[in-house]
Design a protein that fits this description.
Blueprint: H1 2-11, H2 20-29, E1 32-36, E2 41-43, E3 51-57, E4 60-66, E5 69-76, E6 81-82, H3 84-87, E7 97-100, E8 104-110, H4 111-120, H5 122-146, H6 151-161, E9 169-171, H7 176-183, H8 187-199, E10 203-206, E11 209-212, H9 215-219
Antiparallel strand pairs: 1-8, 2-7, 3-6, 3-8, 4-5, 4-7, 9-11, 10-11
Length: 221
């Protein structure tokens, strides 16, 4: 398991450009290992700790309550982290709900330990700020998608959000079924939207991989 922990830390972007001894120091002295069973709620609005959690093994879903339902924000796996947004924000409730999609092994770094790491290793501080900045950009894209009124417009936005720099290939972060949850619209409507875009010659689907044939058409929706 120790080797698995190191592998997850090396994958974690928070420790980009950190040397091996730094990663080992963090694993040995600044973090604790724990396991959550499938379907367990790890963090919720009222159940959480101010800590950074790194996934060593398994997958979790990140959902947000909206009215009486939930919106799927993302699915996280090995090397991914959660808990950043609440770490230094003195809000009484956690912002999302984190649920284990399978048995999950996690490494937890408490807030006071993270603060020490910031002072000892400036590269970790820099990486932390970069990740937060990227997440703000990601959430702005999400907001843009949700404000679109038509299902087909939301679907086009979702495809563009996950495309490469040349806007030729888009890889969805989850299945089309989960995309319906993420967009907070019916699954049948999402499937019809994808079929409509494909029949119009704008995209070509292969599972979660979408070939973009007319990016301008998607952008103009």
């Amino acid at each position: 398991m120790k080797q698995k922990v190191f592998e997850a830390l090396y994958k974690c972007r928070l420790f980009n450009n950190a040397d091996e001894s730094t990663v080992q120091e963090i694993a040995d002295n600044y973090a604790s290992l724990s396991v959550c069973e499938k379907n367990s709620v790890i963090f919720s609005e009222t159940k959480y700790t101010r800590a950074l959690v790194i996934i060593v093994k398994g997958k979790v879903s990140v959902t947000k309550k909206v009215g009486n339902g939930k919106i799927l924000m993302s699915i996280l796996g090995e090397g991914d982290i959660f808990g950043m947004a609440t770490m230094f924000y003195e809000e009484e409730n956690f912002l999302t709900e984190i649920t284990a999609l399978e048995k999950v092994t996690m490494l937890t770094v408490p807030k006071d330990s993270l603060v020490k790491l910031f002072s000892l290793y400036p590269i970790i501080t820099e990486n932390y700020i970069k990740i937060l900045s990227e997440r703000i950009h990601f959430l702005n894209k999400k907001i843009s998608t949700y404000t679109k009124s038509e299902t087909i417009q939301k679907t086009a936005s979702l495809i563009l959000q996950n495309c490469d720099s040349e806007k030729k290939i888009s890889v969805l972060p989850y299945s089309i079924t989960n995309a319906a949850d993420a967009l907070n619209i019916g699954r049948a409507s999402v499937y019809r939207a994808f079929e409509s875009l494909e029949n119009s010659g704008y995209i070509k689907r292969n599972g979660r991989k979408i070939e973009i044939l007319d990016s301008a058409a998607l952008e103009n929706m």
